[in-house]
Design a protein that fits this description.
This protein is mainly beta and about 130 residues long. The protein has a single domain, classed as Jelly Rolls. The protein is about 5% helix and about 45% strand. A six-stranded antiparallel beta sheet has the order 1-2-3-10-5-8, with no helix packed on it. A hairpin with a 5-residue loop joins strand 6 and strand 7. The protein is globular, with a radius of gyration of 14 Å.
């Protein structure tokens, strides 16, 4: 059984920060679950272009608000507490923080190792342990 407290992840090697976002990696590849599981904070008013071309991602909003734009279609969807989106086609997208920080719960397949950072495409490279 794996039990973790988010408070133990804050300010540890499992917390990764970028300009306007923070990712707290609760489960990683080495945990052997077949997916990784993260809490991600998107700062209010921030804008990020991502393209997880090597991973599928499901994201559930538990606090805050913002939008996601599908760059293939131009469709923009509101995000708020209770909304899930799934990047089932490795969708290139723009994630925007709204009037308050968004708190997102994310699952990645394949799982990340914890060492990944966004490359110039906004993607995580596949990192082998």
């Amino acid at each position: 059984m794996i039990v973790r407290d988010i408070q133990d992840i804050i300010d540890s090697e499992r917390e990764v920060k970028g300009d306007g976002w923070t990712s707290r990696r609760l489960l990683l590849k080495k945990d052997g679950m077949g997916f990784s599981f993260h809490e991600t904070i998107i700062a209010a008013g921030s804008e990020h272009e991502f393209w997880y071309k090597n991973h599928l991602e499901a994201v559930y909003c538990v606090a805050g608000n913002g939008t996601i734009e599908d760059l293939a279609t131009g469709e923009v969807h509101d995000i708020h507490d209770g909304v899930i989106y799934a990047l089932n086609n490795h969708d290139r997208h723009i994630l925007k923080g709204g009037s308050e920080d968004m708190r997102l719960i994310c699952a990645f397949n394949p799982p990340v190792t914890g060492r990944e950072t966004h490359d110039s495409d906004g993607a995580y490279e596949l990192v082998e342990e």
